[in-house]
């Protein structure tokens, strides 16, 4: 009785926190159909950049695990990143302000994207851990004057 319960109107057994319910009654993975459906929609890795085209602006792509960042209210927050819980950000940063392909009235500009990460306020221990929004570089584009 303790540690498990059944859902009303259903025959699926639910487990209490700490006891994962990852398999259905047949012993098969409950999330198998989700993984199979999501993998079917992915493009072939070889065909992603097979158009032969190149970017007009040079950039550096990096995957990072930030520890400190300013949130949407411009307040410094500590981002939860430990050995057991890692939050990675894929970012692309402009290498130059202009290139041979992006010149004259055009220039390379940095674009940013909002990420929602688990963080805490280092100046307020009572606030605990919470989700917050942070802005990170996402791509580099060539923009021209109209």
TrEMBL record:
It comes from the Eukaryota. Residues 1-27 are annotated as: Disordered. Residues 56-144 form the Spaetzle domain. One of its GO terms (molecular function) is growth factor activity. Keywords: Disulfide bond, Glycoprotein, Signal. The keyword Nucleotidyltransferase does not apply. GO terms for cellular component: extracellular space. GO terms for biological process: central nervous system formation; innate immune response. Homodimer; disulfide-linked. This is Spatzle 3. It comes from Operophtera brumata (Winter moth).
């Amino acid at each position: 009785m303790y540690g498990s319960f059944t859902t009303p109107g259903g025959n699926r057994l639910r487990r209490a926190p700490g006891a994962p319910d990852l398999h259905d009654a047949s012993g098969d993975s409950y999330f198998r159909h989700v993984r199979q459906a999501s993998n079917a929609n992915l493009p072939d890795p070889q065909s992603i950049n097979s158009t032969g085209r190149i970017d007009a602006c040079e950039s550096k792509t990096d995957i990072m695990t930030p520890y400190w960042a300013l949130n949407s209210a411009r307040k410094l927050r500590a981002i939860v990143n430990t050995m057991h819980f890692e939050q990675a950000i894929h970012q692309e940063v402009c290498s130059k302000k202009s290139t041979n392909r992006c010149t004259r009235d055009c220039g390379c500009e940095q674009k940013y994207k909002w990420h929602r990460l688990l963080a805490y306020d280092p100046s307020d221990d009572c606030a605990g851990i919470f989700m917050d929004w942070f802005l990170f570089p996402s791509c580099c584009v060539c923009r021209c004057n109209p």
